[in-house]
């Protein structure tokens, strides 16, 4: 196969994606660099970490995750810091090199060692088919969506680590503090951070959400300042230019850290034709609700009169009132380029109510379900003849919980296991590959010295299993499976995972037993799984009940995706085939929730993993092993 090579010279520079100048991470001087590769080619990316020693996250190092790639047979290049590799430290380089056996479609790459993605280390990644394109359209474009903070990721995560105290929940008083809403939404890396103020006057429905005086900002944090064209001459609004009569494939990517977006083109419907790279039955919608980590390929037909139309990306998260929206212009060639649209700005709340109605309607086209009609180049889970879902062999019920640790830190947890950190002496995959029994041992087994039974990083001193409480204050029962943050799978297992987002989620509310009658979930969670695409069987509200709810599973033509939303006070059921030896993370793609521990791992027959590449980055720490000579990678 041919090799597609990129050099990534990673540095820090000044950027003003939304007109506010700040330090951003750049690749070869570019912000949000886009890359492409043809299916079947070897992708080779040499990452030179040239971050300056003054960069706040310099000691964390960097890594790259190929979001949505299954990495089958390429388990060492998945890019999660300390899971498959140690981070690439400043002044060193590392080459990712693997064959791209992935479905042609829309993906993105991003840093995954710490929070470097939030500072700009992220960009589109397109996989082109080796032969002709299956979809029909005239032109294509990327719509790379992100939220943007004016503060560095380090500064934002610092208060998330402080002890939680309901009375001191502010930055000023030194307590736990939430990151608040982003300062802007960018479209193709451009936006205006004061846009809501500029537009508030023209649209009363948007005005209350964008009002600087009613904006909730934690004490000590600055409010959104109105954009000034005088002091920010270089910044611009994104214009998406089309020619009348043509059909466009728009590759939408939500690469943000908090904002669940509803994206609308005024006066134009769009048709969803792919979700997370895999094709879907065409679904025509007025607005596309796209959560963090998700991608939609949509077709837009430029069939309206030549003119300028608003393009809006409005934040729809349940609890994020006060979020600014992002605005661009859909401009027909020949329209007056100096004019803004005169039509009203699209209103997603009234046009497309935010509900799981739309996502639950996304299904697989029937040609993908039959081996005889399967389009050439379709990537299937190993051993499958088509994309028809097999029957499950294992079920895991995951409750999203939010424990308070004995040391006062607030954490997100899955089934009450707050995972915060991993061993820093070797990639977890390397440890498990040599001794999968590591995971089976009990908590008191200290034969491995500093490595705990489930590799839950007790060596870092902040990993705990904490009982949670139900609404009435009684202790939560033990969960049915996976009391640890690792689930050991055997290659070939077919696993149903049901993620439940209910009242155990206090999310900043009162978590104490018996206190806080209204402890319902306050937010949805955009989950993503590494190493696999999975079938999305069903979304539901309320408490998942196996007897009644499993009959609602779509086991005929469910969407085949790598990202899914767990709606507020609801549940989502997915099914995946554990065909990929390695250690794979399932986590919330809200960066701040991931930081707080909202993740777990699946270890699939790790003993079948390949030996690590000799040039895998060196790990910073050392530790003791008693299962034979060990050289940390
Ligand atoms: Cu895009 Cu682990 O994430």
UniProtKB/TrEMBL annotation:
UniProt KW keywords: Signal
Top-level taxon: Eukaryota
CDD domains documented for this protein: CuRO_1_LCC_like, CuRO_2_LCC_like, CuRO_3_AAO
Record GO terms (molecular function): copper ion binding; oxidoreductase activity
Record domain Plastocyanin-like: where: 10-129, 140-335, 492-606
Family: Belongs to the multicopper oxidase family.
Protein name: Putative extracellular protein CSOL_037
Species whose genome carries this gene: Pseudococcomyxa simplex
Source species taxonomy: Eukaryota, Viridiplantae, Chlorophyta, core chlorophytes, Trebouxiophyceae
């Amino acid at each position: 196969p041919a090799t597609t090579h990129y050099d990534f010279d990673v540095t820090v520079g000044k950027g003003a994606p939304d007109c506010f100048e700040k330090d951003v991470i750049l690749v070869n001087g570019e912000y949000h660099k886009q890359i492409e590769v043809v299916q079947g080619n070897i992708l080779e990316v040499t990452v030179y970490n040239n971050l300056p020693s003054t960069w706040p996250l310099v000691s964390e190092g960097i890594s790259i995750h190929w979001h949505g790639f299954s990495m089958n047979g390429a388990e060492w290049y998945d890019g999660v810091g300390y899971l498959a590799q140690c981070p690439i430290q400043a002044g060193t380089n590392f080459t990712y090199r693997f064959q791209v056996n992935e479905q042609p479609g829309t993906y993105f790459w991003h840093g995954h060692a710490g929070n470097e993605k939030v500072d700009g280390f992220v960009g589109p990644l397109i996989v082109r088919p080796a032969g002709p394109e299956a979809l029909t359209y005239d032109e294509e474009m990327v719509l790379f969506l992100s939220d943007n903070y004016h503060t560095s990721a380090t500064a934002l995560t610092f208060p998330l680590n402080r002890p939680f105290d309901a009375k001191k929940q502010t930055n000023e008083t030194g307590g736990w503090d939430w990151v608040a809403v982003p300062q802007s939404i960018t479209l193709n890396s451009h936006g205006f951070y004061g846009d809501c103020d500029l537009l508030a006057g023209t649209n009363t429905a948007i005005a209350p959400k964008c009002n600087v005086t009613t904006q909730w900002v934690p004490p000590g944090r600055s409010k959104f300042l109105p954009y000034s064209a005088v002091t920010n001459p270089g910044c611009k609004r994104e214009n998406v230019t089309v020619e009348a009569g043509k059909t466009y494939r728009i590759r939408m990517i939500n690469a943000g850290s908090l904002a669940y977006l509803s994206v609308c083109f005024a006066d134009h419907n769009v048709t969803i034709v792919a979700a997370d790279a895999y094709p879907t039955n065409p679904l025509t919608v007025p607005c596309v609700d796209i959560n963090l980590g998700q991608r939609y390929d949509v077709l837009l037909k430029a069939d309206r009169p030549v003119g300028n139309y608003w393009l809006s990306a409005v934040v729809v998260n349940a609890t994020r009132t006060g979020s600014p929206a992002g605005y661009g212009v859909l401009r027909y060639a020949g329209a007056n380029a100096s004019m803004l649209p005169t039509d009203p700005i699209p209103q997603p709340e009234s046009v497309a109510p935010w509900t799981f109605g739309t996502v639950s309607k996304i299904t697989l086209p029937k040609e993908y379900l039959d081996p005889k009609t399967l389009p050439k180049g379709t990537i299937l889970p190993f051993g499958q003849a088509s994309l028809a879902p097999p029957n499950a062999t294992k079920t895991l019920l995951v409750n999203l919980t939010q424990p308070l640790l004995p040391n006062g830190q607030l954490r997100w947890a899955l089934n009450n296991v707050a995972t915060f950190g991993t061993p820093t002496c070797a990639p977890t995959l390397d440890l498990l590959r040599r001794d999968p029994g590591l995971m089976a041992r009990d908590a008191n087994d200290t034969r491995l010295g500093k490595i705990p039974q489930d590799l839950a990083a007790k060596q870092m001193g902040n990993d705990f299993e904490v009982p949670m409480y139900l609404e009435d204050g009684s202790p939560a029962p033990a969960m049915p499976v996976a009391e640890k943050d690792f689930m050991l799978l055997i290659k070939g297992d077919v696993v149903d995972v049901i993620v439940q987002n209910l009242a155990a989620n206090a999310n900043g509310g009162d978590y104490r037993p018996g206190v806080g009658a209204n402890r319902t979930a306050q937010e949805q969670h955009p989950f993503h799984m590494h190493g696999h695409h999975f079938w999305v069987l069903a979304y539901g509200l309320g408490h998942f009940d196996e007897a009644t709810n499993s009959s609602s599973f779509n086991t005929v033509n469910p969407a085949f995706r790598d990202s899914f939303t767990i709606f507020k006070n609801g549940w989502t059921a997915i099914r995946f085939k554990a065909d990929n030896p390695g250690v794979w993370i399932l986590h919330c793609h809200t960066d701040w929730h991931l930081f707080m521990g909202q993740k777990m791992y699946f270890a699939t027959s790790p003993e079948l993993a390949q030996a690590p590449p000799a040039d895998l980055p060196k790990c910073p720490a050392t530790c003791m092993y008693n299962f034979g000579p060990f050289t940390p990678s």
